[in-house]
Amino acid sequence: MGVTVVDHPLVQHKLTIMRSKETSTASFRRLLREISLLLCYEVTRDLELTTKTIDTPMQEMEAPTLEGKKLVFASVLRAGNGLLDGMLDLVPAARVAHVGLYRDHETLEAVEYFFKAPSDLENRLVIVVDPMLATANSAVAAIDKLKERGATNLRFVCLLAAPEGVERFTKAHPDVPVFTAAIDEKLNEKGYIVPGLGDAGDRLYGTK
Ligand code: PRP
Ligand code: URA
């Protein structure tokens, strides 16, 4: 399935501003939303189309339209919501799942505190969004849970990934393609991505 690095110049430029520690919460939030539009474009690039008959003001035509059931965006709370907002701008009819997970700062294990998803996940494409793929403990736990609830067709979108996280994720869920704006150098001893951008949730919501 593999990993796609979205190297579009606008994505890379905006990501650089987000990484800077001088960037304000307001700018960070706006930039994440903007980048999410571009990541959404990429992750939905091969969605299947069918046609339907419509009347333009000029004549009848067979026009392309998305095939199948509405897709689901699954946001890994909290920081996933920063990507979710932009994705919903592009696909406003999408359904939304929320997966509440936080990283235990000592063990780096993902701890679940909330889960709510549409009941018919098996019939839908589920696009999981979370800006950071560090150890991948959170992403793997989120996908485990969604699969347990019936999802079979999944994709994972993040902003930044660590090589260690990519390796663990693709081993745990080889059937789930990953889309990211960058793969950084490594994880530090506290499990943070370096050079990275710090704590995505804190920067997004100003909770440091
Ligand atoms: C961050 C991030 C991911 C997770 C990535 O969330 O949004 O969910 O860490 O790290 P991992 O790959 O090592 O699991 P965090 O736990 O800080 O929660 P928050 O979004 O509520 O701030
Ligand atoms: N979570 C974050 O928000 N940032 C990191 O660098 C790693 C995990």
From TrEMBL:
Single GO biological process annotation from the record: uracil salvage
Pathways per UniProt: Pyrimidine metabolism; UMP biosynthesis via salvage pathway; UMP from uracil: step 1/1
UniProt-listed Enzyme Commission number(s): 2.4.2.9
GO cellular component: cytoplasm
Cofactor needs: Mg(2+)
Summary of activators and inhibitors of this protein: Allosterically activated by GTP.
Entry's cofactor comment: Binds 1 Mg(2+) ion per subunit. The magnesium is bound as Mg-PRPP.
Assigned keywords, A-Z: Allosteric enzyme, Glycosyltransferase, GTP-binding, Magnesium, Nucleotide-binding, Transferase
Binding site for uracil: 193, 198-200
MF-aspect GO terms: GTP binding; magnesium ion binding; uracil phosphoribosyltransferase activity
Family: Belongs to the UPRTase family.
Name this protein carries in UniProt: Uracil phosphoribosyltransferase
Organism encoding this protein: Tianweitania populi
